[in-house]
Amino acid sequence: MIIEPRIANPAGLLPDAVKAVNLLYKAAHSAGVPQRTLELVHLRASQINGCSACVDSGAREMRKAGETDERLFAVAVWRETPYFTEAERAALALAEAATRLADRADAVPDDVWAEAARHFGEKELAAIVLWIATTNFFNRINAATRQPAPQNWG
């Protein structure tokens, strides 16, 4: 089944939004968190939210940057695989909790936060949280407007 967008991408319709998104991107990527970690967080949140455009583009960009197939294929089941570092696991757990806010009374439990804080400093944690929020922002726009994954990939 081919999904047709309800409207064009909102960022294209509201160009001032692109400026804001670019500033969020720059801020999240300037705190020293490894790019691979941020990309894993983005992919996992996008998988949870069912954002085909972000899952597709995120995985493709990660592959172009040298990410292995084993890790890409295992992001959704990261707990059951040996492919991720302890710091990446902490960031993935934080991404899942912060994306699934309504799943529990304490949206981000203390143990999840403490494990992330064991691997990342305050500025890095701020960047990860900002990137999780930005990813969820993208996912919600794409899901609401039915932005499909591109069909013209070669």
UniProtKB/TrEMBL annotation:
Residues 15-97 form the Carboxymuconolactone decarboxylase-like domain. InterPro entries: AhpD-like, AhpD_core, CMD-like. GO terms for molecular function: peroxiredoxin activity. It holds the Pfam family CMD. Keywords: Oxidoreductase, Peroxidase. This is Alkylhydroperoxidase AhpD family core domain-containing protein.
